[in-house]
Every structure is written in structure tokens, then in C-alpha cells.
Specification:
It is a single chain. The protein is an alpha+beta fold. The chain has one domain. Helices cover 49% and strands 16% of the residues. It has four helices and two strands. A two-stranded antiparallel ribbon has the order 1-2.
Amino acid sequence: MLMFLAFSGVFLSLKSLPDTLAWMPYLTPSKFAYDGLIKNELVNVTFTIATGQKFFGQEMKADINGEVILGKMGFDVSRYEPISVDVVSLLMVPMMYLCITWLSVKWYHIEQR
């Protein structure tokens, strides 16, 4: 489970992975769950951050888009598929593991007599 979380982007930035391990995140269902969560929370959302200090009688504020936050977190801001891609991937990756397990048990099972 720790490897799934590490390669999903929860514990490290996926851009920091070496090129030889760049394929690993696509084998973890956690990556698609994390992508879906981040997209749901930050895409098309604007946050207003206020400092509480006044400058010429007005409070100092800054509006920040969720896309800017995603860019700072290391997510590729230009690739926003619909969240349904993540939901389908969350179903397909475990099914792939189930099929691989079934095939390996079927092919390597030795009948006991």
C-alpha cells in the first residue's frame, strides 16, 4: 500500500520521478483516486486570501485560482479530462489486477491428488 501511495502522487511529486519509473503511477488505483479528488476540489474554483491588514482603508486580499494551486503542487494544469476518466480508471485498474491474478492461478495451479 505504501508503494501505491508513493507512486500515486500523495507522498511525492510525480514530476520528480525518474524516467525509468514514469509508468508506475498508472498501475496504482490511488493515482486515479487522488487525481479525481484534486480535480473535484480545485478545478474552476477561486480562493480569496485575506491578510487582515488594511492598506489605505481597504483590507489586502488576493484571489487565487485552483489551477494555480495545482500548478504549484506539480500537476499538469493543461490536462484536465473529465472526472469520469478517473472513475473509469478506478474500475479498470483493479479489474486488470484481478484478471492477472486469475490467469496466474489458472496457469500455475498444480492439481493436488
